[in-house]
């Protein structure tokens, strides 16, 4: 899982950079999508670690809720960016 997370992080950073350089909302969105995969992998690992260390099962659910809120925030931002592109907001 660690190798997968690191690989996804590297590809996500690359896609985000290329998306900004080329002004491609699709490539940028794909980079953000991969980054949410990194966040969920880290959250799963963190939740399991916290439960193993403390024995408090509720910590796993708390971490899951926190990362799901982050994913919703990123998704909302992507939807707003897509609406801006589709409505030609950036045109003079």
Q: What profile does the largest beta sheet have?
A: none
Coarse morphology: elongated
Helix content: over 70%
Number of helices: 3
* Radius of gyration from CA coordinates: 16 Å
* SS content category: mainly alpha
Distance between the termini: 46 Å
Low-confidence stretches: none
Overall pLDDT score: 89
Share of residues in strands: under 5%
- The H/E string reads HHH
Your description of this structure?
This protein has 3 helices and no strands. By secondary structure, the protein is mostly helical. It is elongated, with a radius of gyration of 16 Å. The mean pLDDT is 89. 87% of the residues lie in helices and 0% in strands. The relative contact order is 0.12. The termini are far apart.
Brief overview, please?
This protein is an all-alpha fold. 87% of the residues lie in helices and 0% in strands.
